[in-house]
Fold this sequence. Notes:
Largest sheet: 5 strands, mixed
Number of domains: 2
Distance between the termini: 53 Å
Number of helices: 6
Low-confidence stretches: 145-158
Radius of gyration: 23 Å
Amino acid sequence: MKRLAEAVHQPHKTLIQTGITPKNKTGRRKKYLIHVRNDVLKDNGSFFVPKKDRCELCVAYENADIADKAKLEEKYDEHLIEKILSRKEKKEGKEALKTNKNLIVAVYDLQAVLQLPRGDVSVFYYRSKLNNMNFTVSKLKTEERGQKRDHLTASNSNNDEPIVNLSTTKCYFWHEGVGNRGADEIGSCSFEFIEKELQSHTSNEPIDSIFYSDNCCGQNKNKYIVEMFMYAVIKHDKLN
Length: 240
């Protein structure tokens, strides 16, 4: 571990001395990232790739025997069609950002519960934990024409979707003493995000908005969230 840390630190130190830093121009940043990546991989190191939550239906279908797969076949096929359609809709939303300056495309989700205090000391194991919630809303923004990625990853190097790594994310953080993690909290945060975005648009032109989320019924797919969006449209005339 020490050797790996030194392998990352030394090229970083050298590149800083030569004026190649992550905060400099795109070309220098790309060269910097290549140097760091090569030195890490040279010592059998790797970069952590966050795991994605897997769909319950997909996992159930993969683990089912032949008889159970036959029962799930129709439902599973419909599920795959819906997945393709939803990805198509999201891609079209990203494409629309290039031409429509009055369009808001956002993705929101609630992160895993963070329990505090936490640490390596054994005494923390016997302490009561305070649950903390972090609700994030990412406003997608495509890169300007002519811009390129600083580096490619396995997840984005082989697709033709618009680049949205200039997105901005707003975090709403609270603990269990303030609120839960249900539709009330999600709706309140989403509505506050909408109002802030509308305030930043000074023109009186209509504003189109598209929101994407997962299929969690308790937080996103329920009548309270639908009513929140309806209320926002009724309250603000320029919001579509």
